Amino acid sequence: MKKVSLTIMAIISAFGISMAQPADSAAGKQKPSVETTVTTDSLKEQVENVKGSVDGLNESYLETKATVGALAKIKVSGYIQAQWNRGDTEGVVDATNKLVKDRFLIKRGRLKTTYDAGLAKYVLEIDVTQDGVGLKDAYAQFTEPWLKAFSLTMGAQDRPFGYEVGYSSSMLESPERSKVIGTFFPKEKDIGAMLEFGMEEGPVSWLNAKVGVFNGQTNILNENDGYKDIIGRLGFSFPLRDAGLSIEGGFSGYVGKITTTDTSWRDTSSKAKIGYNYTMNGAMWQKNVDGSLNQMFDRQYFGGDLQLTYATPVIGGTCLKGEVIQGKQPGTAASSNYYAAANPSNTALYNRDALGYYFYFIQNIDPASLQLVFKYDMYDPNTKVAASDFTATSNLTAADIAYQTFGFGLLWYVPWAPNIRCMLFYEIPQNEKLTAPAAALAKYKNDLTDNLFTGRIQVKF
Amino acid sequence: MKKVTKQVLITGLLIFAAFGLMAATGKKVITVKGSDTIVILAQRWAEEYMAKHPDVTVQVTGGGSGVGISALINGTTDIADASRPMKKSEMDKLKLRFNSLGYETKCAKDGITLYLNESNPVSELTIDQIRAIYLGETTNWKDVGGPDDKIILYGRENSSGTYVYFRDNVLNGKDYSSTMQSLPGTAAVVNAVAKDKLGIGYGGAAYAKGVKKVKVKKDANSPSYEPTPETIKTNEYPITRYLYMYTKAKPFGELKDYIDWTLSDEGQSVVTKVGYFPVK
After folding, report:
1. Rounded to an integer, what distance in angstroms lies between the CA atom of residue A180 and that of residue A371?
2. Whole-number CA gyration radius for chain A
3. CA distance, residue B236 to nearest chain A CA (Å)
4. What are the start-end ranges of the E strands in A144-259?
5. What is the pTM (predicted TM-score) of this model?
6. What is the ipTM of this complex?
7. Which domain holds residue A156?
8. Are A167 and A223 contained in the same domain?
9. Which CATH number does the domain housing residue A362 bear?
């Protein structure tokens, strides 16, 4: 623009002087012609000077453009989720493990830096809360230049499984992910390498696929065995815009292994036999004493997910989405989270067959910038037992009890500040009601008083 | 549920409902944001529509197709004007927030016009020649039948739909030459080319005032065409495109009335007056 402005000024000056010239000549015919020549030369000199300045500015502009162009590839984004929880007696636990009824907390404080050079991408994301600073994403990605359909991502990233694992916490319509996701994929991230296929347009743009090899460790911990886990998802997407309908979904698989570290038992006759593992025998846990230290056990999940959205006239879009996952989950007596004991440990491995599913119903009310949310979430950590199997003589534990949770929410996108989202959400978890359990599980004869209210404000940039 | 929690929940619901009602009521205002190519057309539409409907305010701003679509995703505009189709990634973002893929309305046709300075003797270019010029492979006018002097490139900023459309459809998705001067609006491109005898620029046909329009050929053996109502209607002009209006979902109420009017004979006559081409 500066170049253009200066050029215009130079042209206007030139015109002004050249227009003035005949008048001067007419007014004073006695002026010597040599003076006219001098004036023209001076003008030429001025124009040359301006041209030189413009060329200089142009060079400076190109340098600035190159600098700004490089900086424009760096993007900083993030969001804060500040919330207030109020729970029933067993709903909220403070930092010292003491039960409290209500609390304020920073649920998430994300800061993400992305360098996006088109075919190459760098992403680093941290999470800052009252609990400290944690690493979320840290990966490098590049895309092949020919079809721009295949990309390779290496580093700490979302596991490519299902729908909710990779769904941004900033867009999640409930306070947290479903119980099955939180149990199978705690913290969502793992370190590995992933190949992804997807096209923006063309005859196969409806298809997308991801497959990766990962450490198989939660929360971006270092690898603790030599076995890698393979995770993949084959997805489809059919946007039927004329009908206002979108159908998306996919099928996912996780094939991994867990290595036991239990040294709590040693066979006195055969020192090679160290450590326990447990498998189900009918409705009872059976202790296996074949020595499981350093043995690997299957950690396998398979699932399907489906998302339907419909642009409901007048009121706003409607979404129905859900996911079902079943698989083999090696855990411990106390928890159905996957086995991640220290090495060595005194923690035996429990092999469970687990099942979980959830679905959301979301209705936008666009004229009021609202979303109404209903969520149903079910997780059964041990599909081989029912509530009636928890008897006084049973060796089943609290980690074998199934849960279902009903959630009701209201989201409000502030119309004059669209980067702010407010959430009111009420969750009603219901455990299996055990008919005649052992004394240690007596409290599960009834539904625990663990309902939870969340009021959250999120600001995203 | 405990009593206090109930009270908090009910209070929260009432506050949300009150804010929601405040947002839902009020004067009829339609906001339009996006493509700088369309902005002159959108402004004329707004002026004529408001003259006939004094109870409605239509606010029009430019910024580029990408800016308009971002505003639609953020919920800060009712209509996003775009001189290119909405991308799949943009549809995905819209769906995340509104559970809707967006609703597309083709509101006009345009031929992306190559502007030259009026003193430039070059009168026609093939698509391959245009591509080579904007990729920086051809840098001298003599290589395309002009004078022995360097070619000065003018173009749009990357938030522009015209920038994206031209890159994807003329440059086959390759990046522009780094020597191209990116200007904030088609009017600025036209102005620069009008002042620069070595300049070349591109943009909407409606802006081509005070510059020379180049005839374009698909290839060396094809006939060349100037962007005219006939050649654009028949798609003979090789760089013909639609201009779009996007809404979050199928429009209703005042928004539908306005969009229907832009597609009516009266609205489409404004398209012709501005220098673009009717969709029908």
Report:
1. 24
2. 33
3. 24
4. 150-158, 189-198, 207-214, 229-240, 245-259
5. 0.81
6. 0.78
7. 80-460
8. yes
9. 2.40.160.10
